[in-house]
Amino acid sequence: MSDTDAIRDKVRALAFWRGRVDPQPLTGGITNTNFRVEDDGRHFVVRVGADIPEHGILRAAELAASRAAHAAGVSPAVRHAEPGILVLDYIEGRTYGADDVRADIERVAALVRRAHHGVPLHLRGPAPAFWVFHVVRDYAHRLTEARFRLGGEIPRYLNVAARLEAAVGPVDIVFGHNDLLPANFLDDGTRLWLIDWDYGGFNSPLFDLGGLASNNGFSAEEAERLLALYFGAPPDETRRRAFQAMLTASLLREAMWSMVSEIHSPIDFDYRAYTHENLARFEAALAAFNEMDRR
C-alpha cells in the first residue's frame, strides 16, 4: 500500500462523514496531502499533514487562522478538524495562475487587504509571528547542521538578509497569509477566495505584497499599481525600496524553504530543481535592489 493509499484510508474512516466516501487526490500540494470528498451531496477538501517544525508549521495555528479567515469572509468554512486533518468546504471555481493574478490586481489587492485587517479581528488563542528574516536565519542553522550541498553560500545569504532587513526598517503589523502563490486564489465566478493558511502569522504587509509580486511575475509597473491599490496612494521611494527588499527576501526564503525540504520532505516533488529556480529569481531580485541603491 502506498503512502497516499494509507492516507486516503484514514480520510475515508473519518467519523465526520454521513455515508461511504471515496476520497479523490488533489494534485499540486507540496506541503500537505489533499483530497476532494463528496458526502451526502456536499463537497469538501481534506488537508492532511502533521506539524512541520522545520518550516514553523503548527496545525493548531493553521486551524485558528483558517477559522478566523472564514469569519472574516475571505476563506471557506472549516467543517471538521482533528490532529493532522482539516476538512473545509470545497469551492467550485477556477484556481488562479500567475497570469490570472496579474490580470486581476485590483480584486487581488482588495482581498489581501481585507484578509490582513479582517482576520485578526476573529483570531482566537495564541498566534505566531512570521518574520522572514528570522525564518532565513533558522533555515541557515538547519542547513549548516545538515551540511547541505550549498552550505558554502549560507554566509552570503545571511549577509544579504541582514542588509535587506535594515532596508525594510520599521513596519506596520497585519495578519499575513505569507504564502501568496497563485494557486491559493480561487475565483467562483462571483468572488475571490484566499485559501491555505499553513504559514499565517503576524507580519508586515510588505511581505505578502512582495511575495505576491515575486510569485506571480509582476512587472515593475504592475508592482507599482499593486502598492498604490493596497495603500491608497502611489508609493514613495522609501516604500519602493522597502518593498523591493521584502520581495527579494521572500525569494531567498522560498529558495531556502526548498533547500530544507530537500532534506526533510517525504513528498514526491523535485525540490532540487525548485531550489535552483528560486535562487535564480532571488539573484535577479537582488540585482534590482542593488540597482535601486545605486541610483
Automatic annotation (TrEMBL):
The record places domain Aminoglycoside phosphotransferase at 24-242
Which UniProt keywords are listed? Kinase, Transferase
Q: Spell out the molecular function terms from Gene Ontology.
A: ethanolamine kinase activity
Q: Which GO terms describe its cellular component?
A: cytoplasm
A Pfam family (short name) is: APH
The transmembrane residues are none
- State the Gene Ontology BP annotations: phosphatidylethanolamine biosynthetic process
Note the InterPro entries from the entry. Aminoglycoside_PTrfase, Kinase-like_dom_sf
Instruction: Give the matching SUPFAM superfamilies.
Output: Protein kinase-like (PK-like)
> Mind telling me which PANTHER family this protein's record contains?
CHOLINE/ETHANOALAMINE KINASE, ETHANOLAMINE KINASE
- Protein name (Swiss-Prot/TrEMBL): Thiamine kinase-like enzyme
Organism this protein belongs to: Ancylobacter tetraedralis
